[in-house]
Specification:
The chain has 329 residues and is α/β, with parallel strands linked by helices. The chain contains twelve helices and five strands. It has a five-stranded mixed β-sheet. 18% of the residues are buried. The N terminus is likely disordered.
């Protein structure tokens, strides 16, 4: 009769629910009974099958509405979990960016009207009309000098004379091509997480006995110029105006300890490119580098705080997760 069929199906569904609930409530798989009646070695799936033996398969299926509701709840849970993961990733990224900004050189910002007025005065300063410094470079000297026009004028004049004396006005690519091909110093195509241009130096490729110091200096100026040209091109988009310099010291030995070049580099970033290098990384500096650092640190003065000794993994934290800039040999 219809009542008998209804009773049979209801009983079957109740028993299936009881079987699943009983199995799930067991404290661990070791305490769940097996088909053989023992406490170990049984199959939890077999146990559920045993309890449900004799129940028609159709009775074990959830009603269509229940199945649909279950799928919807599962999809909602997955979506909520994905949203939470995205939020966590975004929070971690913002935290990382704040940490990186705090480590580097912090530059003040100035009102546009003040910059325009200071530039107008600097353009008519004595000795600058025929100099090498373009408007972007002059503007940077103003910022580096806290808008002190007289101080900026002096620094621009020194910069122009240095360029002219050493023939750095327009460096011919052919004159540094061979040095560039050694790979000892390159301007990376990839930027760091802050959007800074990156100059990477591999000191094991710089051997004092083989290098021509004059050519190495020209290569340094060439790479800094290239990095600044990229910065000036993106200045309207609000991109960072400073450079990150990375020295890879893995495998460093006394044959690579070029103190004369390091003195030149420090002179460059102090006098001719002031406050352009916002941070310097030394990757995995070996013990033999300590005497070199003892000589170099006093030359840096307060800017030695911008130097960080990092591991390879820590250096990679400055770049996107999929970056392949610095890899283990």
């Amino acid at each position: 009769s219809p009542y008998k069929v209804y009773f049979t199906r209801s009983w079957a569904r109740a028993m299936s629910c009881l079987a699943v609930t009983t199995w799930a409530a067991m404290p661990s798989w070791e305490l769940r009974p097996s088909l053989s009646g023992g406490r170990r070695g049984g199959s939890s799936g077999a146990f559920a099958t045993q309890l449900c033996a004799g129940i028609p398969p159709a009775a074990l299926r959830l009603p269509a509405r229940s199945r649909h509701h279950h799928r919807c709840r599962s999809a909602e849970a997955e979506t909520e979990g994905a949203d939470d993961d995205d939020d966590d990733a975004g929070t971690r990224r913002e935290t990382k960016l704040r940490e990186l900004r705090a480590r580097g050189l912090q530059l003040p910002t100035y009102d546009d009207a003040d910059l325009v007025a200071a530039m107008a005065q600097l353009r008519v300063a004595d000795g600058l009309a025929s100099g090498h410094a373009d408007d972007a470079t002059m503007l940077w000297f103003l910022k580096a000098c806290a808008l002190d026009v007289q101080e900026a004028a002096v620094k621009c004049q020194v910069y122009n004379e240095w360029r002219e004396t050493n023939s750095y006005q327009d460096i011919d690519f052919a004159s540094i091509e061979q040095e560039l091909n050694t790979g000892k110093a390159v301007l990376l195509h990839e930027r760091d997480l802050l959007g800074r241009q990156v100059v990477s130096v591999t000191l094991t490729k710089h051997v004092i006995a083989e290098r021509d110091l004059a050519v190495t200096k020209r290569l340094t100026v060439f790479l800094l110029d290239q990095g600044l040209a990229r910065i000036h091109a993106g200045a309207a988009e609000g991109e960072p105006e400073t450079v990150l310099t990375v020295f890879d010291l893995r495998g460093f030995s006394t044959a690579n300890a070029d103190i004369e070049f390091l003195k030149f580099f420090i002179k460059c970033i102090f006098t001719y490119f002031p406050k352009r290098v916002s941070e310097v990384l030394f990757i995995e500096a070996p013990f033999v580098f300590r005497p070199v650092w003892a000589l170099v640190k006093p030359l840096l003065g307060k800017y030695s705080s911008l130097v960080r000794f990092v591991s390879l993994d820590e250096a990679n934290e400055y770049f996107p997760e999929d970056s392949t800039v610095f890899q283990r040999d």
